[in-house]
């Protein structure tokens, strides 16, 4: 131990010389090993122990300095990102640091600092270095108030020991790597930084108490004071107070709803943060200021988004400065190597804010032009402006979106910040298109293509990009579709007019859009989800209840919800997926109980399913067919209650009923095969007659509707089927042959062709229909005459034939 103690003293006596790199660590290790086994001299020891006091004091001082330097160097090498939290960083020494023993060492140094006679000419450096080591320990321990007091003592001692006519005392610690100079300037800088941190903690406490006005007033003063050296943080201090000040000021003004103040001081904060970002060289500090810029831009953006007129609150020089700073920031963001995937300041809000500034200036120019027009009274100026807008270039504010998307898309950055740039792009352009302005008319195709590119980058719609030639693959990270954004997408891609149940297949949505619509339905809020009402409508359709149910009020529902289910039902109906069509038509009927097309689609989907079942070669359950038939007929009735003048629907209703009676006729003809009882046979015959009467009413109603509408396209079909129905009901030949004759007349009026020979694969217009009628007239006539083969037929019926 004596050898180790002598070794430490020999090194301590040479502390003014530059040591080899590993020697400081060896010194610390030896001291730690020796420390538990030595007895230090007391403060009251006599002068005869001066050498022993000097040996122990210098060894302990060097140990404390090396330990602090080791902690600070390790933190600097780790390059932590300083938080923007206003809180002090707390204890940064870690649980393994011997804080208790280290505190005893510092206390020993403080006791020995009164023994000026022992240290002689080394006393002043010893006292200052002891205080400095203690201050660094307290700062790293998070004891800010105590550290401030010690630093004030250091300043006082420097001032006391510095002659007025000479430079202040400066101490250099030779073998420390960081904080190795004790000078009035550096100590003052550290002291001011700690005092600001203390003040910031108090400001944050006021913020948490809700005293936002006091917080804002205090922080605004930091802008009004001239920039001092104290405001610039030392690269090694790593204290994030200024970041937190800027953010707390913005939050306080926002809480106070002082949106103009939030924008004004946000512009000042952006200017300061960007200048700091461009001036610092440390990557850690650049990261800190980058984070601060992102938050300040977010605050500026939400202010402008809240009220775009707030830009008028900025003085012209400040607005110009903000525009220049935004452009400077965009240059910084884009000025990276092609191989880099990271944006220097990770936000695209700079483009959004630049758009708002450009739009603000464009609106000012338009307003001045309008005033000039009204004052000069020149007629036709407005029309000339419109013509110029139609023939001129795209406005700069709109062109900015295309430029931004193109440049950001090359780096796959266009959906950064949760796609906020593309959302604004879509909002602005869709508003322009909805206004049908001169710009929208002149650049309609470009604007539409721009929106489609945005949606492709955001949501990957359409999935098959090859079908849309103008879409580019940016490989940007897609954004999750949310309910708030659904309306934007739906309004753009939905058909201009809702397709009807009897419209062409081309009018329905595409298979790509069907996928998107299904994604949207999965996001419908529970309070607007029609599946909650589905059982009520289903009970009515199935016949469980006879009266139409009373449904909840849907007037406050989103227009998207009121249309999306119908579009899906229409898509599946026209693509012959009838089970899915029934599902979505039913959901739409819950929301729009008076929509004719939904009930018609329901009726036709169910009718087609019944027809497929009847015509299939599989075993049939007649009770199931009749139950489904009842549901289909109820849907037809509901549709015709909504619109009784729809001839197409009457015809479809009649076709369904006629098909059902044909099925019953087949059963009656095979009654012996089915072993039907007399009661069942009688019930079937009665049901057949009811269905024929219903079918007769349907086609008569269809004929009346077509006569009212002066349409004769389907009149021939109505009379043809009325002829068959009246024949089955046992009407006289005069009735059913008259219907068939009228049908033939309508075909003639529709320019039917009567060729000598009909080619099956390419028949002339209405030729097969005419042949069918010709055959039917003769067949029914012959059938009637054969009834009277042995007895004379009534003369009036013969005249009719």
Automatic annotation (TrEMBL):
Keywords: Nucleus, TPR repeat. It is found in: Nucleus. TPR repeats lie at residues 562-595. Signal peptide: none annotated. InterPro entries: Hir3/CABIN1, TPR-like_helical_dom_sf, TPR_rpt. GO terms for molecular function: nucleosome binding. The keyword Lipoprotein does not apply. This is Putative calcineurin-binding protein cabin-1. GO terms for cellular component: nucleus. GO terms for biological process: chromatin organization.
